[in-house]
Amino acid sequence: MAKQRRWRWVKRLVGFLLIMGTAGFGGWYYLQQTDSSPPEYQTVAVSRGPLAQVVTANGQLNPVIKVQVGSQISGTIDKLFADFNSKVKEGEVIAQIDAATYQAALENAEADLARAQAALELAEVNHSRAKSLRAENLIPSSDYDKARADMHEAAALTKISQANLAKAKVDLARCTIRSPIGGVVIMRNVDVGQTVAASLNAPTLFIIANDLAKMQIEAKVAEGDIGVIDVGQEVDFTVDAFPGQTFHGRVTQIRNSPAVDQNVVSYDTIIEVSNPKLKLKPGMTANVSIIVARRDETLKIPNAALRFRPPASTQKKSASLLAAADPAGKSKKKSGGSSHKKEKDKKSERSVYVLSSEPAGTNAIPQLQPKAVQIKTGINDANSTEVLEGLKEGEEIVVSMVSANTAVGPVSALFGGGVKKH
Questions:
Q1: Where do the domains of the chain lie?
Q2: Are 267 and 258 in contact (CB under 8 A)?
Q3: What residues does 235 pair with on adjacent strands?
Q4: Where does residue 219 rank: exposed (0-12), middle (13-18), buried (19+ CB within 10 A)?
Q5: Is residue 385 within 8 Å of 7, Cβ to Cβ?
Q6: Ramachandran bin of 25, using left for φ above 0, alpha for ψ from -120 to 50, beta for the remaining angles
Q7: In Å, how far are 53, 218, 226, 233, 284 from 253, measured between CA atoms?
Q8: Hey, which residues does 95 pair with through a beta bridge?
Q9: Three-class SS state of 225
Q10: Is 262 left (phi over 0), alpha (psi -120 to 50) or beta?
Q11: 335 in Cβ contact with 351 (< 8 Å)
Q12: Phi, psi (5° rounding) for residue 346?
């Protein structure tokens, strides 16, 4: 019985060792296959289509003409003839300040003027009488001089009274608040019975917009981008109230006054906006994209292709292929020319990688390796870059590499030599 039990344990141990050995060999074989498998490259085709380079900024929507209507006199609001969103005409009465005090001041000024005019008439009569008596040498010259001075003083007091009367009339007229322009009331800051004090500064009673169908965006553009902004450029913008809709405008002014906020310098750029359906409201925040360059139909590649760089060993192979294809260095530019032109060409030249066939060892089975290609680039946006020279439409360029350790056999076989295309 003990012998049979021992024999069962031996069989179990041998079976366990066989299983572990098989698993270890399978893992070793898998790693060998994975390490020897070539890397996979994701490629895309050079395409043709529209492309636009933009400068982004934020700004606030405002009416083109916005007037703050205030009061130059103090008093209590007696009546209001306009409210929010009221349409008003130029010169239309929109508010009335209690005019009792100013009416009394007007009547007082009229009385002062009447008294001054009466004093002037008396002074003129006295002057005429003194003049006649002096002609007959019946009064001394001092009396005549005093009569003449009294007449001039009465005339001056009359002018002062007239000025006071005119001022009282102006103050009374200012009790009636009129709209300086035709438009729409977008803000009302007072109510009936409220007292306005104009002793230090004029209080704002209303804000009136001339025409809400024509608005403007005051966008703040950073100093690094202001150099490419010009008057007349097209603008696309969105607002949070209509997230799925894009509105359009045009740059009309670039103001030279800088604004500094936390050491960041920006310049106000005025964008003209048409608002015929009155969807856009004053004060909305606009997310602006100023189109500085546009191509309706051009060659373009993803920006990821410009950022891709293969491993160092692959780059050496690529350099060898490039040298073999151009042993004399004919692809290099001829010497000479202005340094400015060389610098400009240097800035526009970039490197991308295409897949090129290369023999793989003694078995001469071709493998696809990335090969560097020099191209000239143009404008770009957040996703794509324009290609001016170096590539043709439909060519496949590498955008990324998948590690060989993550490669899967069927995928490698499907794309031939580890090439994966999107």
A1: 55-64+208-297, 77-95+177-207, 99-174
A2: yes
A3: 249, 290
A4: buried
A5: no
A6: alpha
A7: 20, 10, 12, 10, 20
A8: 80, 177
A9: coil
A10: left
A11: no
A12: -65, -40
Between 135 and 17, the higher pLDDT residue: 135
Q: Distance between CA 406 and CA 40 in Å, rounded? A: 9
Maximal C-alpha separation, the chain: 177
Q: In what order do the strands lie in the sheet with 183-188?
A: 66-70, 204-209, 183-188, 87-88
Q: In the structure encoding, which two tokens stand for residue 205, read together?
A: 């009673």
Please tell me the least confidently modeled range out of 3-7, 197-201, 241-245. 3-7
Q: How far apart are CA 389 and CA 298, in angstroms?
A: 11
Of residues 303, 319, 299, 309, the one with CA closest to residue 386:
299
pLDDT at 65 over 80: yes
Contact 251, 269 (CB under 8 A): yes
The encoded tokens of residue 187 equal: 């803000």
CATH of 55-64+208-297, one of 3.40.50.300, 3.40.50.970, 2.40.30.170, 3.40.1620.10: 2.40.30.170
Structural tokens at position 172: 């009374």
Q: Which helix (H) or strand (E) holds 143?
A: helix 141-173
Q: Residue 311 corresponds to which amino acid?
A: P
- The residues facing 266 across adjacent strands are 222, 259
pLDDT at residue 110 is higher than 90 = yes
Second-level CATH architecture of 99-174: Orthogonal Bundle (1.10)
Q: How far is CA 91 from CA 88, 94, 203, in A?
A: 9, 9, 19
Overall average pLDDT of the 38-65 stretch: 90
Question: Quick one: tokens of 338?
Answer: 């202005």
Query: What pLDDT, on a 0 to 100 scale, did the predictor assign at position 315?
Result: 57
Q: What is the pTM of this model?
A: 0.66
CB atoms under 10 Å from CB of 388, counted, come to: 13
Question: One-letter amino acid identity for 354?
Answer: V
**Residue 21, Cβ neighbours under 10 Å: how many?**
10
Residue 413 has pLDDT above 80, yes or no: no
Cα 363 from Cα 211, distance rounded (Å): 80
Torsion of CA 98, 99, 101, 107, to 10 degrees: -170
What's the mean per-residue pLDDT of the chain?
A: 83
Mean pLDDT along residues 279-297: 94
In the structure encoding, which two tokens stand for residue 166, read together? 């005119």
Locate tokens 């045009």: which residue? 250
Predicted confidence at residue 313, as pLDDT, reads: 57
What spatial distance separates the first Cα and last Cα of the chain, rounded to whole Å?
Answer: 68
Q: What is the pLDDT of residues 210-252, one digit of tens each?
A: 999 999 999 999 999 999 999 999 999 999 999 989 999 999 9
